[in-house]
From TrEMBL:
Residues 275-505 form the Sigma-54 factor interaction domain. The keyword Transcription applies. One of its GO terms (molecular function) is sequence-specific DNA binding. It comes from Desulfosporosinus metallidurans. One of its GO terms (biological process) is regulation of DNA-templated transcription. PANTHER family: C4-DICARBOXYLATE TRANSPORT TRANSCRIPTIONAL REGULATORY PROTEIN DCTD, TRANSCRIPTIONAL REGULATORY PROTEIN. This is Response regulator of zinc sigma-54-dependent two-component system.
Length: 590
């Protein structure tokens, strides 16, 4: 609703102009019958409600002009408390109308015979004149409101611009910067007092040309006053086909790189040098892993819990050309079955009750261009194994609740501590997926099978926890190392880390770690475990002998299928075991 009070001084000027032209007093009221402007007797009574505004009230209500030539006797004067004492001789009042709203009244009032004559003799032309004056006021009040709205919008837009993390420059058709936000000010060191031309701030001819021609532009550029590498986008602004300026967006390239890295790359960067161990088995494994790292091949890492499967997967990712992209790890065994599917593949908005607005990206999509590490793949339910297989075959993913398939470039590294070969036989794991995953198998031997790595791992963790806890530990005695070397380490390297952390915490002063400081379980390995260990050693010997026997029986290269059948294991397992047991290919075994 327009309000005449907002343009009070214009209303007063209009009243003065009418009064001067007609030599009749004027008063102008707003929609609340507050006198906004007045001349003569009324000049001092502006800003107050009109107590005697019965005629104006009527005009406001009906929207019809009123002419009163007999004040006090007209029926509109009946309720007026001043009736009988009215000083006015005659009155003309017309509504001020803006479209379908009446926003006020203009009144002409005569206080003597002469004024009354002028008023009554020219009634019709005066009414016409007042209508024009009313239109003028409406135009002014509308313009005032529009200015106010424009100002508000400008303030809102400037506030939004200043909240943005990009630098924004608004350029006119003369290549002058008409506005810039706070961030652009910082990036370009703009002098707010001085008018700036674009070429004074940014050093790139192609950019200037694009702005001049009203073309789009995107690319890296250099700021002129600050040595910041910027990424710039230009969007031209046209009006009815003619170029009126441009919006230039600026991003700090260093900042973009940082954000991309933060958003996509895990902060843990692992290199092969961080995989501690010099045993022949570990060296062999690392050589193999380094060789396959640059390829696109799917990998399956097998090994007991805590042997460093994830560490190896991260090192492989870091040594591949995917290293600038995401490494996304998901533990398939740790996520409830009903959530695992949407975690892996994402979902569309509204695909199930409780689905987030806007849907959700799955881990596969997050790993685009990078690596996905499917830990504990052996715990993957069968129905999801089918979906994983499809992703591996088609290199596309479909979100839950969508039939749009999204192309993907993801390297898959799966890991498990379970015997997938056995699981395939028992029907718990799909054979086709097993073969897909097992293209290049990598097996991390348990710690007890590479005892020569134990002392260096002990030293590694001693250094690590001394630094972390800020404690000086002199060393570890040979007796303590001996005990740790013969402990079977069911939790492997992870467990060793915990044991050394415990020892560093327990050691008093700057002393050595001695056997008495070691945790009890390490010193008193239960008999059963020792027996089990020996039994497993014996079983391994038996297994090696059985494999050699089977190979001798079939006794020809290329007939390993027959040997595998004889042994009741898959061909893949046979190959792995031949490698594990270091069985020569062309030897006669007996
Ligand atoms: N060779 C190694 N050198 C240094 N640290 C290692 C080594 N192997 C494992 N670790 C450390 O041991 C811990 C367990 O490693 P990781 O999580 O990679 O094992 P995992 O085999 O994936 O375990 P799980 O099967 O339980 O998921 C980590 O802190 C890792 O840094």
């Amino acid at each position: 609703m327009y309000n005449l009070r907002d343009i009070k001084s214009t209303v007063q000027q209009t009243a003065d102009a009418i009064a001067a032209a007609l030599k009749i007093e004027v008063e102008i009221a707003d929609a609340d019958l507050i006198r906004v402007a007045g001349t003569g007797k009324y000049k001092s009574r502006c800003g107050y409600p009109m107590d005697d505004g019965f005629v104006y009230g009527h005009v406001m209500k009906t929207g019809v002009p009123v002419i009163i030539d007999n004040p006090g006797f007209n029926e509109l004067c009946q309720p007026c408390p001043c009736r009988g004492n009215c000083l006015e001789y005659a009155e003309v009042a017309i509504p001020i109308r803006s479209e379908d709203q009446i926003i006020g009244v203009i009144g002409l009032v005569s206080f003597d015979e002469e004024q009354t004559k002028r008023l009554m003799d020219n009634k019709q032309s005066l009414l016409l004149f007042l209508e024009k004056m009313a239109d003028l006021l409406v135009g002014k009040v509308v313009e005032n409101q529009q200015n106010h709205e424009r100002e508000l919008l400008t303030n809102q837009l400037l506030t939004v611009l200043n909240l943005l993390h990009d630098g924004i420059l608004l350029i006119n058709d003369q290549q002058q910067v008409t506005h810039f936000n706070t961030h652009a000010g910082k990036l370009l060191d703009i002098d707010a007092e001085q008018e700036q031309a674009l070429y004074q701030l940014l050093d790139d001819k192609k950019l200037w040309k694009a702005v001049e021609r009203g073309e789009t532009f995107s690319g890296p550029i250099q700021g002129k006053r600050v040595a910041t590498q910027l990424y710039c986008d230009v969007v031209p602004i046209t009006n009815n086909g003619s170029f009126e300026g441009a919006v230039v967006t600026l991003k700090d390239i260093q900042q973009i790189k940082k954000l991309v890295k933060e958003a996509t790359v895990s902060e843990i960067e692992t290199h092969f040098s961080q995989i501690i161990g010099n045993s022949s088995k570990m060296n062999e494994l690392k050589t193999m892993a380094l060789r396959v790292a640059p390829s696109k091949a799917t990998l399956l890492i097998q090994g007991e819990s805590g042997t460093g499967k994830e560490l190896l997967a991260r090192a492989i990712h870091q040594s591949s050309n995917r290293k600038g992209h995401a490494f996304i790890a998901i533990n398939c065994g740790a996520i409830p079955e009903n959530l695992l599917e949407s975690e892996l593949f994402g979902y569309e908005e509204g695909s199930f009750t409780g689905a987030r607005r806007g849907g959700k990206l799955g881990k596969f999509e997050l790993a685009h261009n990078g690596t996905i590490f499917l830990d504990e793949i052996g715990d993957m339910p069968l129905h999801l194994q089918v979906k994983i297989l499809r992703v591996l075959q088609e290199r596309r993913v479909e979100r839950v609740g969508s039939n749009r398939s999204i192309p993907l470039d993801v390297r898959v590294i799966a890991a498990t501590h379970r015997d997938l070969d056995e699981m395939v036989k028992s029907g718990e794991f799909r054979e086709d997926l097993f073969y897909r995953l097992n293209v290049i198998p990598l097996t991390i031997p348990p710690l007890r099978e590479r005892q020569e790595d134990i002392p260096i791992l002990i030293q590694f963790y001693l250094d690590h926890y001394s630094t972390v806890t800020d404690k000086v530990v002199r060393g570890i005695t040979p007796e303590a190392i001996e005990i740790l070397t013969h402990y079977p380490w069911p939790g492997n390297v992870r467990e060793m880390g915990n044991v050394i952390e415990y020892c560093v915490t327990m050691v008093v002063g700057e002393d050595n770690i001695t056997p008495d400081i070691l945790p009890k379980r390490v010193k008193t390995e239960p008999k059963a475990e020792i027996e089990a260990k020996n039994l497993s050693l014996n079983l391994k010997i038996l297994e090696r002998e059985a494999i050699m026997k089977a190979l001798t029986l079939v006794d020809a290269e290329g007939h390993k299928d027959d040997a595998a059948k004889l042994l009741g294991i898959s061909r893949a397992t046979l190959y792995r075991k031949i490698k594990d047991y270091n069985i020569g290919e062309n030897k006669t075994f007996f």
